[in-house]
Design brief:
Strand order of the largest sheet: 6-7-8-3-9-10
CATH topology of the largest domain: Rossmann fold
Largest sheet: 6 strands, mixed
Number of helices: 11
CATH architecture of the largest domain: 3-Layer(aba) Sandwich
Bound molecules: adenosine-5'-triphosphate
Number of strands: 10
Distance between the termini: 40 Å
Order of helices and strands: HEEEHEEHEHHHHEHEHEEHH
Number of domains: 2
Radius of gyration: 19 Å
Structural class: alpha/beta
Shape: globular
CATH class of the largest domain: Alpha Beta
Length: 252
């Protein structure tokens, strides 16, 4: 493997990655790189390989062939999921997984601690530093006013933000977000785009999304996947005008 400029400057570098399930190629020689503090939107029809790509990055799925490097030196194809998470790669699945019975701020506190057993964490004294970090994270995800409510009472959009706040507590260098706008109101969708843009000032963000209004709002480079490879990449306007993209995805 040659270590060229693109490899060394990229935070995430995928090259020639293939994943086969029972003879079916879910990823087909996929190449993609994400820079530091870059936000990228990934679009594409159902079955294009978007989830499988995220699974390769997080170590859930091993590629049959190809290169997956983080910070030009960590070979993601050889690390397990826990090690990859510790490198600073966080993943937000489509359905929020927060602790409904606990308050919003306790959810953030649980995410801050490495000891995740709720009893010792919630009943131990909070340090000043922890309080400040909780305040800052709640502010960031727009939940300061809801801090004492139980997470189960939040709207769907607020639960998504809480989970993003819990991921931010781990200070990720790369955040993978799967369809954050699904099921959100128009206002929540617009607020989520703002939030992700803010996050991208200090971390890289990969957003898989079908909602084109939201993708336009993000205002970032777009990659369209199809049949496990990159079909088109560039500005949303350029990608949307691509005839193949219209044929396989947008024009449906
Ligand atoms: N564990 C698996 N075993 C067999 N086939 C799989 C497996 N995981 C994914 N696939 C297949 O691989 C292809 C790519 O799936 P993937 O979930 O990555 O697509 P996607 O772009 O995320 O689609 P969607 O937008 O519907 O979530 C699909 O045809 C899917 O059926």
């Amino acid at each position: 493997m040659t270590i060229g400029g693109e490899v060394t400057s990229a935070l995430l570098y995928l090259d020639d990655v293939s994943v086969t399930f029972d003879g079916f190629r879910a990823l087909n020689r996929l190449s993609l790189s994400i820079g530091a503090n870059e936000m990228r939107a990934i679009i594409g029809p159902n079955g294009a390989g978007k989830t499988t790509m995220m699974d390769v990055i997080t170590g859930k799925t091993r590629p049959n062939t190809g290169t997956a490097l983080f910070q030009a030196r960590h070979d993601l194809t050889r690390l397990d999921e826990a090690s990859i998470s510790q490198l600073g790669i966080g993943r937000k699945f489509q359905t929020p997984t927060v602790f409904d019975m606990h308050t919003v701020e306790d959810n953030i506190l649980l995410a801050l601690k490495t000891d995740r057993r709720p009893f010792p964490v919630l009943f131990s004294k909070r340090t000043r530093e922890e309080k400040e970090r909780i305040d800052a994270l709640l502010e960031r995800v727009r939940l300061t006013a809801s801090r004492h409510r139980s997470a189960g009472e939040l709207s769907h959009g607020q639960k998504q933000w809480l989970e993003i706040g819990m991921l931010l507590a781990q200070e990720p260098k790369l955040l993978l977000v799967d369809e954050p706008a699904a099921g959100m109101t128009d206002q929540e969708t617009a607020d989520t785009a703002d939030l992700l843009r803010e996050i991208a000032k200090t971390a890289s963000v990969v957003v898989v999304e079908h909602d084109m209004v939201f993708v336009r709002d993000l205002g970032v480079k777009v990659t369209c996947l199809h049949e496990g490879s990159v079909l088109a990449e560039g500005s949303l306007d350029a990608v949307s005008a691509n005839e193949r993209v219209i044929e396989v995805y947008l024009g449906r």
